[in-house]
Specification:
Helix content: 25-40%
Mean pLDDT: 86
CATH architecture of the largest domain: 3-Layer(aba) Sandwich
Order of helices and strands: HHEEHEEHEHEHEHHEEHHE
CATH class of the largest domain: Alpha Beta
Radius of gyration: 20 Å
Number of helices: 10
Number of strands: 10
Oligomer: single chain
CATH topology of the largest domain: D-Maltodextrin-Binding Protein, domain 2
Structural class: alpha/beta
């Protein structure tokens, strides 16, 4: 089946050899990602691959705990508090947490944006926060400095990936870059406040001195890169900002690359001597882990596990 094909609930059930009701239960529990086109639930092959990647490890380890960082209480199902909590929204982090479970380290996961994750790390609610924020000059470091004042931190690389514009197939509006946001005939889609795509957009608008109110669709908020890309492909808007790999999952879409972003895992420097963190860094640097995440994600992992900088 083509990588960019949209999968129905029945097709996913057939791939996993389970019933449709099981798939709906997995969606309800948040164990498999999906999106909606109208009232129909759809999946990408990456959603299925990610679920399989996480599930492959669960025969030998407990499932990853999902943690609500807005509450200090554990739910009844969380009988044992996690030894470490990893924040971020990439499937690589789910795979990492499962590898930690295999090493008898009880790792929890919370799915915060980069901005929210850094705040949670500063507040001591998480132990590691994935971050991909661009301030117009550099990735991540300036946000770590401003959101974690007085805290010494290290940035461990996870991957590099390309951010750009999603546009309809064949680019009918002939969009080429940021300057096209000045055009009155261009409509966009946006993400919620605090998301990396929203911060990137707002940074560029400020740099170009374009008032946000001038952009048609600026206040039309979408839940994910995938839902934005699907809407652009359907002709609901002319462009949206997101990562390149989404374009390999959908038909009717082209991509205009704008910049390479660095995706890092931020840790407080004092935690580097923590045995769980030592083990996590060893996993990130291992050839076995690199092979697995390369297969399921498709980003550039040339510096995976390396400490890129101290802030």
């Amino acid at each position: 089946m083509a990588q960019n094909q949209s999968l129905s609930t029945q097709e996913v059930a057939d791939i996993l050899h389970v019933s449709k009701s099981t798939i709906y239960d997995l969606i309800r529990k948040g164990e498999i990602h999906s999106y909606k086109i109208g009232r129909k639930v759809r999946f990408t092959q990456e959603d299925v691959d990610a679920y399989i990647a996480r599930s492959r490890h669960e025969h030998s380890t407990a499932p990853v705990q999902r943690i609500d960082t807005h509450s200090t209480l554990l739910t009844p199902a969380e009988e044992k508090a996690p030894e470490m909590i990893i924040s971020g929204q990439d499937v690589v982090l789910d795979i990492l947490a499962n590898y930690l479970h295999q090493e008898d380290i009880n790792a929890g996961r919370t799915y915060l944006s980069s901005f929210e994750g850094l705040l949670a790390l500063y507040q001591g609610k998480v132990d590691a926060a994935a971050c991909h924020l661009y301030d117009g000059k550099e990735c991540n470091a300036s946000f770590v400095r401003s959101l974690m004042p007085g805290v010494s931190a290290v940035l461990v690389n996870l991957s590099y990936r390309t951010q750009g514009f999603y546009v309809r197939k064949s680019n009918p509006k002939h969009i080429t870059g940021w300057e096209d946001l000045r055009r009155a005939d261009i409509s966009i889609l946006n993400r919620r406040v605090g998301s990396s795509s929203r911060i990137l957009l707002d940074t560029q608008l400020k740099k170009l001195e374009i008032p946000s109110g001038q952009l048609k669709g600026y206040d039309k908020i979408m839940s994910s890169h995938l839902t934005m890309a699907s809407a652009v492909a359907a002709g609901d808007a002319d462009l949206a900002i997101g990562t390149e790999r989404i374009t390999h999952q959908l038909e009717g879409l082209d991509f205009i690359p704008l910049l390479e972003e660095r995706f890092d895992l931020v840790l407080q420097k004092e935690s580097l001597e923590n045995p769980a963190v030592v083990k996590m860094l060893a996993i990130l640097s291992s050839p076995v882990f690199r092979r697995e995440v390369t297969h399921f994600s498709g980003n550039d992992y040339r510096d995976l596990g390396k400490i890129i900088m101290e802030v």
